[in-house]
């Protein structure tokens, strides 16, 4: 096995021409709203497209709020996050991770999580 590939990568296409196989990865980058532009610039530099989602996290704070006549408790969601999602070839992955790490060096707030998942098949409709 090649050192640069992971064991679950698909290396060849079988049959259907509409499927794009081999080494595709779905990358999710969880960032604070202030870091979104920097991450998008990195993706632009690598000629990758992205989808942006709003997400909320619980973080370390476990604050509760009592409200109403019955005094019911609700959890306060303290952190507002953005999730930037892109699909890229495995060959671009190392550059992307290095550039995101470089963003961490320049910022007070760290990009804490980068999720990388295999894409078994991408079907163009």
Question: Structural class of the helix and strand makeup?
Answer: alpha+beta
Q: Provide the residue-averaged pLDDT.
A: 75
Order of helices and strands: EEHEEEEHEE
Q: Can you summarize the main beta sheet?
A: 4 strands, antiparallel
**CATH topology descriptor:** Alpha-Beta Plaits
Residue runs with pLDDT of under 50 for 5 or more positions = 5-13, 16-21
Alpha plus pi helix count: 2
Q: How far apart, in Å, are the first and last alpha carbons? A: 33 Å
Envelope shape:
globular
In CATH terms, what is the architecture? 2-Layer Sandwich
Helix content: 10-25%
Oligomer: single chain
Total beta-strand segments: 8
CATH class: Alpha Beta
Strand order of the largest sheet: 3-6-2-7
- How much beta, percentage-wise? 35-45%
Q: How many discrete structural domains?
A: 1
What does the model show?
- This protein is an alpha+beta fold.
- It has a single domain (27-117), classed as 2-Layer Sandwich (Alpha-Beta Plaits), CATH 3.30.70.120.
- Helices cover 22% and strands 35% of the residues.
- It has two helices and eight strands; from the N terminus they run E-E-H-E-E-E-E-H-E-E.
- The chain has helices at 36-45, 90-106, and strands at 19-20, 24-31, 51-57, 64-67, 72-75, 79-89, 113-118, 122-123.
- Strands 3-6-2-7 form a four-stranded antiparallel beta sheet.
- A hairpin with a 4-residue loop joins strand 4 (64-67) and strand 5 (72-75).
- The radius of gyration is 19 Å and the shape is globular.
Q: What are the salient characteristics of this protein?
A:
125 residues, alpha+beta, Alpha-Beta Plaits, two-stranded antiparallel sheet, 8 strands, 22% helix, globular
